[in-house]
Amino acid sequence: MTDQAKKTKEPNSFMSGFTGKSYTIKALGIGLLLLLFLIPLAMMDSLLGERENRRMNVEEEILYSWGGMITLAGPILEIPYIERQNNSFLDDKGQTQFYVEETRKKLFLIPMENTVDLELIGEKRSRSIYTVPLYRAEISMDGYFDLSIMEDQKAENIQFLMEEARIIWSASDISGLNYIDNVIWNDNEYSFNPDTSNELLDDQVAASVQVHNSTSIYNFQMNLKLQGGRRIYFYPSAQNYELKMHANWEALSFVGRYLPYEHQQGSESFVAQWNINYLSANIPALWYDKDNMKAQLQNNNIGIAMVDQVSPYLKNERAQKYGLLFLLIPFLTFFLFEVIIEKPIHSIQYIMAGLANIVFYLLLLSLSEHWGFNWAYLIAATSVTLLLSFYGFSVFKRRGKPWVMPATLGISYFYLFSVLQSEDYALLLGSIGLLLLLALLMKITSNVDWYKKNL
Q1: Considering the domain boundaries, does residue 449 fall inside one?
Q2: Would you tell me the crossing angle of helices 323-341 and 347-371 to the nearest 10 degrees?
């Protein structure tokens, strides 16, 4: 054989034989390329995080202007009292002088019963390409206080200032409060006023009410309207607390310590009901330490979160976790074509196939921000499948079975879409898919004599 003939049989690039000895070396070269492609995959992950942070910033701006994620507590009854304590001191002459020290403090009572009716009206607000779920809430509550539990608190050194009693309703952010009715207190009406104290939460309103020693049961009823976004929380501040919710939002989730004991979900409505008693919540009927009261009520909060089914970022994040696998599939397809039809493939051709899959994730992210995840996935997967299929036809020149490339990619992208749609079974489906892929590779390569396969 002439030198010129020998030269024509020698590979002319490092990936078409990886300096020319065997398919083992070439497989190692493909593995090295896969590792190098982790860099653009990491860049895609960084881009996804950047876009999601941008969405979160826009969402926070809208929520800040609308009222935010609101936490509600109350009403509670505040009764100031004066505690007198006998003290003494030695004067300059060494004689003992006696005096009475008076300290002003507060006693807080929670209702014996509080029934809250919540009407949650959801809507969406958009800024640029981002959409935020918001709500308007109409709330009515009624119940009663039982002041007979104060009998055990009476002592000679304590003077309750019943004429200064106030009913307090509190919120984490009162900027979303649109309207609040006068509180009806034993058939009398009292108006709420802004209050700078923060007995329960950051903001509160208070109404001075009449309380008499001759009456122990006081009924109350109040209505209010507010607006917020994403979530609404309640502190179950009552001995027996009942929350009834009706919402026109199709997708809600429950947050906090307690799940509703009853709920119904329709196509465009959601109904739920909570019943929490002081035994399960470990809430005493009255408090002296407001910080302890805050902590205890916060530990027993219940809430409703509006699920935004439009946001594409979670599914994009899950799809990118399969990035390395979907780089491996076209690489393996090219490699098996090399083995079966014995046509060397250049390193640049492998790189082109890898870049096409990187572009898939870029297309998926950018399109899903405008058209939703499902349509974006269909367009991106179809585009990349067609691109790699035509590229495979041009590379192999109709040798072997070039239709395998579009079939393989189509099945792969369909399988990934199925995994992404089934979050609860994603791990199971992914494991089964990898097992089937491995079994297919074993079947295809079972008759290959790797010792004799040299380029």
Answers
A1: no
A2: 140
